[in-house]
Amino acid sequence: MKRKNPSQASSPNVPIDLTSLLDVIFIFLFIVLASMTVGYSEQKQKLKEKEEIIDEKINEYLNETIDEEAIIQRLEDYDEQYLGTKVKFVSIVGQYSEEEPSIRIIRVDVPDDDPFVVEIYDDDGQNDAYDSIQKYLEEYVADNKGFAIVVSIGEVDILNRDYDAISRRLESISNEYTNVF
């Protein structure tokens, strides 16, 4: 593309070729865009690596905190080291059956043993279920007299009547045995 430069009065008919100038501008623009793309992909790769490292650390943290047995063991070791006694933690959890919502399930989780599970089908059989929980806990406490036993009742899905009945039975056990809290 050629044109005449009207601004120069001394040489009014000198043609200027702009094609080579446009080629240089486009090459420069291409280099800038290419370097931006390379920089963007490198930055994206670095961010992806950082995300992977963060995900690994989160998974490690979750695996450490979810390991309940390790937590209980750490608490027992701490109590033995600083309090001079060993502690066992017992948790009682109530929930409804997934298959039949009218059935209540009460589970007693103790360390070093399988959970003790009681199913309550109706109000007529609930006293027998509470008595079997009390008997199981009394046997467990009697077998572990050298330990301080801390019993907790989960309050999330348990009915009030179950909570109250189990609390009364735990109170009678703690009155009978001095190592139950």
Helices and strands, in order, run as EEHHEEEHEH
Domain module tally: 2
Q: Beta-strand percentage?
A: 15-25%
CATH class of the largest domain, named Alpha Beta
CATH architecture of the largest domain: 2-Layer Sandwich
In angstroms, what separates the terminal alpha carbons? 96 Å
CATH topology term of the largest domain: Nucleotidyltransferase, domain 5
Helix content: 40-55%
Taking the sheet with the most strands, its summary is: 4 strands, mixed
Number of strands: 6
Please compute the radius of gyration using only Cα atoms.
38 Å
Would you identify the regions where 5 or more consecutive residues have pLDDT less than 50?
none
Tally of helical runs: 4
Main-sheet strand order equals: 5-4-3-6
Mean pLDDT: 80
Keywords: Membrane, Transmembrane, Transmembrane helix
Transmembrane segments: 20-40
